[in-house]
Design a protein that fits this description.
The complex is a heterodimer of chains A (78) and B (260). Chain A is an alpha+beta fold and 78 residues long. Chain A has 2 helices and 3 strands, in the order E-H-E-H-E. Chain A has a single domain, classed as Mth169, Chain: A (2-Layer Sandwich), CATH 3.30.1280. In chain A, 10% of the residues are buried. Chain B has a single domain, classed as 3-Layer(aba) Sandwich (Rossmann fold). In chain B, the strands form 2 sheets. Chain B has a 9-stranded mixed sheet with strand order 2-1-3-4-11-10-9-6-7, with helices on both faces. Chain B has a two-stranded antiparallel sheet with strand order 5-8. The chains are: A alpha+beta (78), B alpha/beta (260).
Chain lengths: 78, 260
């Protein structure tokens, strides 16, 4: 089985309202040393059989909007 | 004059949308996307398409992304409906779907490599913005023929992901080709928050394609179809039967009638 982890992040420079809110909340809790928080999304994908390039295709077909997002893939074969 | 009101799980504005369409003499048909995929219906049998608001597929992944993925195999049918000149209206989630599909903005880049060239993403305020907003009509097309260019109308907005973001190049293209249909208006230009409720680039609230028959708009005309649906109606001196959302549907009906 092939397992893949896809992390979808906002591209550098893209405003991240969710990250800002998390940072605000953390500072409210007394964590004043936090310079920046960026929020992303993580997908864990399991394939029935090892097929190459399926996970990048999945990212392009649905998981990522390339206008504001970028992604990283970690594939693990078992 | 059959109009396809396309829904999937999570769509929740089909009733108001269908009511508005029926009230101007059109015949709305609520079609579930799976029925379209299965071939029970074809886009070719309709004289127009409306994708109503809501939270299709729970807004998972990104708002509109899953609905757009379902619709993508049917893109040739949708493109031919558009090329034939029939009206396509995407309201709120419907607008997000048209953007995720790459139908709006209507750019040269999309002709070559279909895919999104923009996004309607999380509001700058990180809040669900649910209130009336003022919009300036920037362009006259079949949906806005009942309005005047520069006219300011008030429509209800209700979204968490409405901030229009695109590249400088695409923004320039949509501006020069007259695709900005509506902008948020405030006391200053650009309109600051809360007048621009989501932080949209260039205050963009609605886009129209080059041909002028595909409109995507974040605020809800179907929720201001009647005068009394407006938040401000008790304070207004004039009282009418129809509200500021009416011209969108009346324009659509008049246009379809002319074509038949």
């Amino acid at each position: 089985m092939v397992r893949g982890t896809v992390c979808v992040y906002l591209k550098e420079g893209m405003y991240d309202p969710e990250g800002e809110k998390v940072k605000e909340a953390l500072s409210l809790l007394g964590f004043n040393n936090i310079a920046k928080v960026r929020v992303g999304k993580l997908y864990q994908i399991e394939l029935n059989e090892a097929t190459s390039n399926v996970i990048p295709a999945v990212c392009e077909a649905l998981l990522v909007n390339p206008v504001i997002e970028r992604y990283e893939i970690r594939e693990i074969e078992e | 004059m059959d109009i396809c009101v396309l829904v999937m799980e999570g769509t929740n504005n089909e009733a108001e949308t269908s009511h508005s369409l029926a009230a101007v003499g059109l015949t709305p048909h609520i079609v579930i996307i799976r029925e379209l995929i299965a071939g029970k219906y074809s886009l070719h049998q309709f004289n127009g398409l409306v994708i109503p608001g809501g939270f299709s597929a729970g807004d998972y992944v990104r708002s509109g992304a899953i609905f757009a993925a379902y619709l993508r195999p049917l893109l040739p049918d949708l493109r031919s409906l558009i090329a034939d000149g029939w009206p396509v209206l995407g309201i709120c989630n419907g607008f997000q779907i048209l953007v995720e599909l790459g139908v709006l903005p209507d750019c040269k880049e999309n002709d070559e490599t279909p895919g999104p060239t923009a996004i309607l993403t999380r509001n700058s305020s990180a809040r669900f913005e649910c209130r009336a907003v003022s919009l300036r009509c920037e362009q006259i097309n079949l949906f806005t023929r009942g309005l005047k260019r520069g006219e300011i109308i008030e429509l209800p907005a209700a979204h968490a992901e409405g901030r229009f973001v695109t590249s400088t190049k695409i923004l320039e293209e949509i501006t020069t080709t007259g695709q900005v249909a509506f902008r948020y208006v405030g006391p200053s230009i650009p309109a600051e928050y809360p007048y621009n409720p989501n932080g949209s680039l260039d205050d963009i609230a609605g886009l129209v394609n080059r041909q002028g028959n595909v409109l995507g708009i974040m605020p809800h005309p179907e929720r201001a179809f009647y005068w009394y649906q407006q938040a401000s109606w008790p304070r207004q001196q004039e009282v009418h039967h129809y509200g500021p959302g009416y011209p969108f549907f009346a324009g659509m009906a008049a246009y379809i009638k002319e074509r038949e």
